[in-house]
Amino acid sequence: MGWKRVAAGTFVIAVVILAAFSVLAQEPQPWQLGMQTPASPSKHKIEDLHNLLLVITTVITIFVLGLLIYTMIRFRASANPKPSRVTHHTWLEVAWTVVPVIILLIIAIPSFKMLYFMDRTVDADMTLKVVGHQWYWSYEYPDNGDLKFDSYMIPDADLKPGQKRLLEVDNRLVVPVGATIRLLIIGTDVIHSWLVPALGVQLYAMPGRVNETWVRVERPGVYYGQCNQICGTNHAYMPIAIEAIPKEAFTRWVDEAKKKFAQNPELPLAVAAALR
Ligand SMILES: [Cu+2]
What we know:
Elements: H1 3-24, H2 41-74, H3 90-119, E1 126-133, E2 136-141, E3 147-151, E4 173-176, E5 181-187, E6 192-196, E7 201-205, E8 211-215, E9 221-227, E10 240-245, H4 247-260, H5 269-275
The structure holds copper (II) ion (CU).
């Protein structure tokens, strides 16, 4: 067998393994390391910053550990019957002040860039309002008439096979893939927090204040999240499930959803709630 065939074979095997891993990476695996597979521009930046910080932290930890071991051996009592009385070393002190400042600057620059990148979107294709309640989320689509609905967790007893416990909801938040979505997040009672790891979104839902961020889902699929601000007894039972679908399918979904969630404006709120 020629080296070209060996190289080609190796290449094919590598591609197959990589493809298998990228499929596996969509679903959580036992002993999986790292974060959820990024599915939005913000999450890519978060992962890049995380990887940079991981390198910096590892180097610092190994350096400090090395210094400790060196000091313990080199300056041990048995080898130094007369201990050193040095208390000052100007250049050393300048160095251990300046070097950390430089390291902090290296961390601060990409960190601030990312914060401003995630802060607000300029050209949004659509706006989505996320409202936190004790203990469920409701979603509003102001660009699509008065479409709005509540999203409750499915209790353990009602779970169908394949549905994820504590993560699946009755009405998923449906969004179009590839669209830049402005997210307006508020709370109605206490502070909640809307966290979706794979999309790199985490924002407080504050009563009396609208927080803004944005998201662009890159791949079709279902993304799960949870409230991550302790908000009361059922804090653990207000998950987030987002379904990203192609734009044409989204348009069809909006038409159906408008009928499904149509509300009778004549009906007093308390009656409507009782009927639900
Ligand atoms: Cu909560």
